[in-house]
Amino acid sequence: MTGMALVVERDLDAIAGGITPWLCARRGLDEVRIIGCTRPSEGLSSETVVLDAVGTRGGAPWSESLVLRLPPSAEGTFESYDLSQQACTQTAVSAAGIPTAVPVEFESDTAWLDAPFLVMPTIDGHIPGDVTLLDDWIISASSEAQADLHGHFLEMLAAIHRVDWRRDGLDEVVPARDLGAELAHWSAYLDWYADGEPIVPALVDALEWCRNHRPDDEPRPSLLWGDVRLGNVIFDGDRRAVAVLDWEMATIGPAEHDLAWFLGLEAMQSELFGRTVPGFPPRDEAVAHYEAHLGRPVRDLDWYEIFALVRSTAIMTRIALLHLRAGRTPVLPIADNPVLDVLRRRIETASRGGS
C-alpha cells in the first residue's frame, strides 16, 4: 500500500554520518566506515535505507550490511509511528517460526539521527512489486509455480494467525481492536487524513455501510500482520518466503481482516487490469486452502473484504494527497480513483445478498 517515494527524504550523507558513531558504540568497534548508503525501497509510510559498513573490532576486520528504518521526517501515511511495537512484533513472530528480519534493534535515542529508528540485517531475495500482475518475476513463472507461491503464502499467513500472542505478551504492545474499535479507528483516520476535509465522501459512505452491516459475531482474535501483500515479503529462488516485512499495521483482531486485505486487493487489481495471474486459484479454493491451515472456517468474508477496500483506499487517498501537496502527480487520482468504482460495486452486490 505504500509503494511510492517519500515526499520528504532525509539526506543519505547525514544518515551515514549519524549511524557511524552509533555502530561504534553499539558494536564495540575501534573504527567504522560506511561504504554504501542507498535507499532501495520506496514507501511513504517509513523511510528505509540500506547500509554497508566496514571497520575493525579489537584489531580484527568487521563488516555488516544492515537495514535502517525511520519514521517519515515530515507528513506520513499515518498520524503516529511506533517503531518499538514493530520491533517487538518481529521478534515475537520470529520466535514463533515466522520468517522475518531479526535480530531487530530499536533505538529510542533521537540524538543519533534526530529520530528513533530500527536496525535489522539485510536479507537477500526478491520482493514483488505492488501490482502483482506487473511483476515479471511472478508473471514469467509457470502456472504451477504461481499456484505454489500463492499456496505457501496463504499457509504462512495462517501460521501468523496461529501465533500465541498472549504467551508472547504482544497484547501489551500491539493494539487489540474488536470490530467496533476498528470501525472507530478508521472513522478517526478519515477525520484526520485530509485535515478534516471530506475529500472523498464515497469513503465516508462506504465506512458507514460497513458500520451498519457489521457482523453480529466476531471470531476469536489473532495476531494480524496488517499490510498483507506479496510485495511485503522477500522470497528466495524457490519462491519461499525468507522474510515478512512491514509490521507497522499489526493489530490483534479477527484473522478475516488479513485474509480479506490480501484477497480484496488481488481481486481489485484483477478487476482493474481485466486479468488474473494464471496460476493463482479462484477465491473459493484460496479460502479453503487458508481455512485448512488456520484450523477453522472464516466468517463474513464479503464484509471484511469491503472493509479492507475502504481501509486500503483511505490510505491510497492519503498518499495521493501528500503527493499533491508536494507538487507531484499521484499514481491514482483522489476523487476519480477507479478503486472507488470497484468498492461501490462490491457494496451493491453485498446489499443485494450476492457475493
Explain how this protein is built.
The chain is built from ten helices and nine strands. The chain has a five-stranded antiparallel sheet with strand order 1-2-3-5-4, sandwiched between helices. Strands 6-9 form a two-stranded antiparallel sheet. Strands 7-8 form a two-stranded antiparallel sheet. The protein is globular and about 70 Å long. The protein is 41% helix and 15% strand. It has helices spanning 12-27, 83-95, 136-139, 143-161, 179-192, 201-212, 256-273, 283-294, 301-325, 338-351, and strands at residues 31-38, 47-57, 60-70, 105-107, 117-121, 221-224, 233-235, 241-244, 251-254. The two termini are 25 Å apart. The chain folds into two domains: 12-121, Phosphorylase Kinase, domain 1 (2-Layer Sandwich), CATH 3.30.200.20; 132-351, Alpha-Beta Complex (Aminoglycoside 3'-phosphotransferase, Chain: A, domain 2). It has 355 residues and is α+β, with helices and mostly antiparallel strands.
Topology overview:
Layout: H1 12-27, E1 31-38, E2 47-57, E3 60-70, H2 83-95, E4 105-107, E5 117-121, H3 136-139, H4 143-161, H5 179-192, H6 201-212, E6 221-224, E7 233-235, E8 241-244, E9 251-254, H7 256-273, H8 283-294, H9 301-325, H10 338-351
Antiparallel strand pairs: 1-2, 2-3, 3-5, 4-5, 6-9, 7-8
DSSP, total strands: 9
**Beta-strand percent range:** 5-15%
The level 1 CATH classification of the largest domain is Alpha Beta
Q: Can you write the helix and strand succession as a string? A: HEEEHEEHHHHEEEEHHHH
Low-pLDDT stretches are none
Instruction: Please estimate the helix content.
Output: 40-55%
Compute the number of structural domains.
2
CATH names the topology of the largest domain as Aminoglycoside 3'-phosphotransferase, Chain: A, domain 2
CATH superfamily of the largest domain: Aminoglycoside phosphotransferase (APH), C-terminal lobe
- The CATH architecture of the largest domain is Alpha-Beta Complex
**Radius of gyration in whole Å, from Cα?**
21 Å
Average pLDDT score:
93
Count of DSSP H/I helices:
10
Ends: how far apart? 25 Å
Largest sheet: 5 strands, antiparallel
The best one-word shape is globular
